[in-house]
Amino acid sequence: MSDTVGTKSALSWAVHLSVAALVLLWLFPTVGLLISSFRTADQISASGWWASLSTSEQVIQVRTGGRDAARQEDGVFVVEGNILTDAEDAPGAVELVSYGVSSRAVSAYEIGETAEFGDGETLTLNADGTYLYTSVEEPGRRGQRVFVTALLPPDFTTQNYQTVLFSGTGQDNMAKAFFNTLTVVIPATIIPILIAAFAAYALAWMEFPGRALLIAAVVGLLVVPLQLALIPLLQLHNAVGIGKGYLGVWLAHTGFGLPLAIYLLRNYMVGLPRDIIENARVDGATDFQIFVRIILPLSFPALASFAIFQFLWTWNDLLVALVFLIDATGETTVMTRQIVELLGTRGGNWEILATAAFVSISVPLAVFFAMQRYLVRGLLAGSVK
Amino acid sequence: MNPALQGLITILVGVGGCVGYFYFSNQILDKVIFPAKGPKAGDNINRANQVRPWLFLFPAIFALGLYLGYPVFETLRLSLTDRTQGGAFVGLANYNQMMAEPKFWEAIRNNMLWLIVVPAASTGFGLLVAQLTDRISWGNIAKSLIFMPMAISFVGASVIFKLIYDARPADTPQIGILNAIWMQFDGGFGSLFVLQLLPTIVLLGFAGIVGYTTFLLVNPIIDREGRRAVPFIPLRLIGALLGVWLVWMSLSSLVGVWTAQPPYGEPQQWLTLPFWNNFFLMVVLIWIQTGFAMVILSAALRGIPEETIEAAIIDGANPFQIFFKIKIPQIMGTIVVVWTTITITVLKVFDIVFAMTNGQWETQVLANYMYDKLFRANDWGVGSASAMVIMLLVTPILVWNVYNARKEMR
Fold first, then answer.
1. Fewer C-beta within 10 Å: chain A N or C terminus?
2. Which of B75, B13, B130, B57 is nearest to B391 (CA)?
3. Do B384 and A231 touch (CB under 8 A)?
């Protein structure tokens, strides 16, 4: 509505800028996690993830050659070499800014300047990393420690994903939890759809006493908190011998998903054209045939909407899995549970945490972006008007 | 048995069982019990059609009754019994015990905070984004990106925000963005502006809006010149009391803003700061729920008749007047729906608190309190009692939803 004369350009600029700001604000947290998952533990603790996108100035610790590399010249020990390439864990070709030899003054000297310190020791470091180190006394075995301030280009690794998905051990490995989650999700998504579709058809297109009451009951059950169901159902599962396990969690998800499924599907089916159904009836189709041949194919968008909801909900669920699935052995742990455990035990290991979390959210994100249309449609139909 | 195989069998049994049940029960009904032939063919067809809906409904009714209906009453019964006494009836003892616990009142207080802040902020942001993106060319992309957190689990979001709130010792680089920003403040003019002037403006604005709303609520009761009946007087008075309380809260926290001595230069453990940490947890849910509010409100804004807006433009209304006086009143119903839906989500919020603080540092909420009681303290009586409290808080919304659904169906 920015068409009001005279104010248009300023206002529309303000609108564009504020939308951009909001979008950035909303993306920022997720991007942080994504980028952190591609950095090593050292990189993560050396700088914030936002600094990793551009060339950044960082202080790195390196060592000159030691006693073995030294030669004696005119009574002093001399070590020559390249500080950036000689050692095994050397940083490689980076641009140097300054250097120092004490942790209290890490950038005391310019590149090319000669540092004099200790008992007659000198060090000259050049821009290409070559250095000349001299000492009156015999150098130590590990050489002189040098703090180099260098400009490091962005550097990312997929090592964390390697660890979390394949090579990690114990809690660090998410592969098992990933498949457990899948095992929970697929039946828990498919079964309620089928049960709900039949019920929704009856509620939408069959005449019988008590129909309005049943619909009202479904609307009411839509908001009953599932917290109420935990203890009675756990007791029930134990009593009938299901105990904690996949069967229990499938049944629980089916029960908890039904109200929304019935509500969504019924709302959609009621909107289907009456003529089609009545024509089929006149032609002698039974209700079962009408449902399978006409209603189900026509309701595909609503079925897809609910399938996405139920998928996201079961994939992301923690509480139901904690109560109905995961027993003392922890063999059937799901990803959400494992991430919570990682938060407790490995709270500081951001490379593992970020990667594990991203593995767990990547599947719902993919589904979200692929099927957003159906999700939006379902939301619009599902919120009680 | 391999869980994957078990899963596959369950799908087959479940799906096959459902289809088989529906198919064969219909067959039996039509062919065996009420066959559509013989002398009573007509009667039989009618009778079969009377029974059939219940065949279609039976699995759903059974599952709903067992998994949602029965637990409500069973939880109510459990809340009145004591497990350690072999399930003896103890009346309201569990409720009394619960009321005596400070942790419970902390959970209630925090839940009330959540109930006010999260729906308001999510709906507000959602409305803002919906309106701003309404007519711009890349609006759909922007909406899609803001909607994205809806797909992220509460646990995943907790990890994301833990990284934001992370704190490192003062002499090492901060990797949490919040502390990295915080370390930039040094008590100079920038700090004065961002930490004192801006909050003052926000608080005064909030107090102003709430005060005006309160005035609108009370005005028809005081000023009854028109002699018209005023609807919902008790509701209006409750709303007005709440409004006065909110205004008082925001004005009194102004004092805090100007007298506080922030610890500049020290990284903060945000999640351990009592009272404020609740808000840091709420941010997570707001971040997730804004997309939901935006999608629904955006559709509502699209549905507003164009003529009303054109008429307002011709009458010389400015964009703000159009938004507040033409658009908002027309989508008020949808705003209420969004608000109540988010309220329900808030009442059930568990994962975020469980994963980020587990109720420590005064961040307990009802759902996590209940989980604590049920599965850590193994006290089913008090646990069920707190579940009933959640149910009690949901009930008004439940009644309201059912009432609306029935009205719509007539």
1. C
2. B75
3. yes
C-alpha closest to that of A39 among A168, A163, A162, A157: A157
| pLDDT band at A73; cut points 50, 70, 90 | confident
Can you give the pTM of this predicted structure? 0.80
Q: Is the dihedral of CA B118, B119, B121, B123 positive or negative?
A: positive
- How many residues can be counted in chain B? 410
Q: Please report which helix (H) or strand (E) contains residue B389, including its range.
A: helix B380-409
Q: Where are the domains of chain B?
A: 3-60, 103-178+269-409, 184-264
Per-residue pLDDT of B209-230, as tens digits, reads 888 878 877 777 776 665 566 6
CA distance A152 to B101: 55
As given in the structure block, the two tokens for residue A101 are: 């030899």
- Considering only the beta carbons, identify the residue of A32, A212, A375 that sits closest to B409: A212
Chain position carrying tokens 């941010």: B283
Give the ipTM of the model, two decimals please.
0.79
Q: Residue B75: its chain A contacts at CB < 8 A? A: 228-229, 231-232
Q: What is the pLDDT of residue B25?
A: 83
Tell me the chain A residues in contact with residue B357 when contact means C-beta distances shorter than 8 Å.
none
Mind telling me how many Å the CA of B162 is from chain A's nearest CA? Answer: 9
Instruction: Answer whether B61 sits within 8 Å of A227, measured CB to CB.
Output: no
A194–B319 CB contact, under 8 Å = no
Q: By the 8 A CB rule, do A77 and A46 touch?
A: no
Match domain B103-178+269-409 to its CATH number in 3.90.1750.20, 2.60.34.30, 1.10.1040.10, 1.10.3720.10. 1.10.3720.10
Tell me if A314 sits within 8 A of A185, measured CB to CB: yes
Per-residue three-class SS string for A280-346: HHHCCCCHHHHHHHHHHHHCHHHHHHHHHHHHHHHHHCCHHHHHHCCCCCCCCCCHHHHHHHHHHHC
Q: How far is CA A42 from CA A35, A83, A236, B201, B250, in A?
A: 14, 20, 50, 42, 44
- As beta bridge partners, residue A150 has A58, A96
